[in-house]
Amino acid sequence: LRLEPLAAALAFAAICTLDARAQDEEKLTSGPGAGLTAQKCQICHELAHVTRSRLSRGEWTDTVRLMRERGAPLSDAEIEVILAYLAAYYARDPAPAPAPDTLAPAR
Amino acid sequence: MDPSRRSFLGGAAGAGTLALIGDARLALAQAKPDAAPAGTIPNEAVKKEKSGAMQYHSERPLTGSVPAHEHDYDVTPSDRMFIRNNLLTPDIDAAQHRLTIKGLVEKELAFSMEQLRSAFPAVTLQGMLECAGSGRTSFNPRPSGTAWSPTGGMGCPKWTGVRLAEVLRSAGLKAGAAHVAGQGGDPGMVATAPPVVRSIPLSKALEENTLIAWAMNDAPLPKVHGYPLRLVIPGWVGSASTKWLHTLTVLDAPFKGTYMTGSYVQPKWATEPGQKMPPDTVSTEAWPVKSMITSPAPNARFKGADRITVRGRAWVGEGSIDRVQISTDEGMSWQRATLGPRGDRYAWRTFTFEYQPPRFGYHTFLARAWDDRGNGQPIVSTWNPLGYFWNGVHRVGVMVEA
Q1: Which ranges of B209-283 does DSSP label H, i.e. alpha helix?
Q2: Contacts A36 to B, Cβ<8 Å
């Protein structure tokens, strides 16, 4: 049994998986406002900053306000659409855990 | 480098130029998201000079670090120093670079690199820098921001430069001088991006370990680490150490801007985990006491008869390390590690602990440092909306096999 082709195939599969994951991180979940959100956020940073986040509406409000402070070209109306989208599709789900009182599990 | 970016807070003059350049950047970004705008260094060029052990968390802005077991050095090599940009990496011509001192000073000054080197004595010291959000992924629930691991986003290299205090005194401080703001020359993707400006209290600015540095580990600063000039405020949150420094402004109050009020703040009173930032906040300054195990690596394999040397580093933003404890029973009991020699005031300190495993199987080591003011590392750090100052005890598990 020759292992090299198998190893090469496994390595190739691993690369594809990594690549697919990286690509997924750059795609927003479809939903009302996804297009505008992607267009505006991508001006300055990767969408992974969004897709890796799960935040409450209050935290998203703070984050989007901060982005406007950092120069993001966003009107009030656009902010409403983007906030509604982010709070629905990138919400903390389930609700935040109670205050942590034990050693946080390694992640 | 767009010269109009050099004016503090922009200003009306040159606003048109800024808008034009910004539009060009914007168009470029939309056409080709990975392209580096003119006057900036592409990420690939930055990464070529870094260690293969670096793990990158984002490309725009560029952020990356090495894991704890790749930090097993008394002095952090430059290629393992963490990267945390807020904007893009500028390509600055050192020959043209000027450092301007203005605000509440007797006389406004501007130094070329050569003038700065010849006017003041050079100082070299080892000093700790750590991103305020280092360790963020350990908070539960997870706050927004760069996904730093529990031990990601710090380093302790050697820095060479001049004391900020001497430069300020040469300009002469006016009555009312209370804070010093550093402005960096890093550009954003859009013209509307405000410059990165952070201020520190005058007492910290005048401290002998606060530097305006041009070298890291005896070589010119790498471009991504602030070439040709940066502030080094060792022990404090990394963002205080403005990279690509071109203007120092002496103020009567903390600078008011997005990098002072929108980030690098904590709730004055701890919030319930998962809540948004309350109105009452305080600025993040010195790091609390922290440590990490840099050897062995997680899941390392040992033979039953092997003695295991646990080695790590401990540091604190103000004060000094008093002791480091190790637990081999998940925190039920603690034993003292041996501290290495005390170095520069803000350098991390190496500790070692010799251990003979009494049995086969999985073993864990917990490290907990204490400072000279009686502060120790907590099991879980206080949650805050931006995920700053994680300093919970570090835990590494290994396997002892027959």
Answers
A1: 258-261
A2: none
Pair type for strands B98-103 and B245-251: parallel
Rounded to whole angstroms, the Cα distance separating B72 from B121 reads 32
Q: How far is CA A53 from the centre of its chain?
A: 5
pLDDT computed for residue A62 by the predictor: 93
| pTM of the predicted protein model | 0.88
A69/B137 Cβ within 8 A: no
Q: Residue A7: its pLDDT value, please?
A: 55
ipTM: 0.84
CA–CA separation, A75 and B4 (whole Å): 26
Instruction: Answer yes or no: is pLDDT of B365 > 50.
Output: yes
Alpha helix stretches (DSSP H) within A1-107? 4-25, 34-41, 48-51, 57-69, 76-89
Share of chain B above pLDDT 70, in %: 92
- Count of CB atoms within 10 A of residue B31's CB? 8
> Given the DSSP bridges, would you call strands B245-251 and B179-184 parallel, antiparallel or unpaired?
antiparallel
Residues contacting residue B188 through CB under 8 Å, at least 6 positions apart: A44, A70, A71, B87, B88, B194
Residue A3, pLDDT > 90, answer: no
Report how far residue A47's alpha carbon sits from residue A52's, in angstroms, rounded to the nearest whole number.
9
A54 and chain B: CB distance < 8 Å anywhere? yes
Whether residue B7 is predicted with pLDDT greater than 90 in this model: the reply is no
Question: Does A3 touch chain B if contact means CB atoms closer than 8 Å?
Answer: no
Best A50, A86, A92, A103 member to test B by mutation, with max B CBs in 10 Å, is: A103
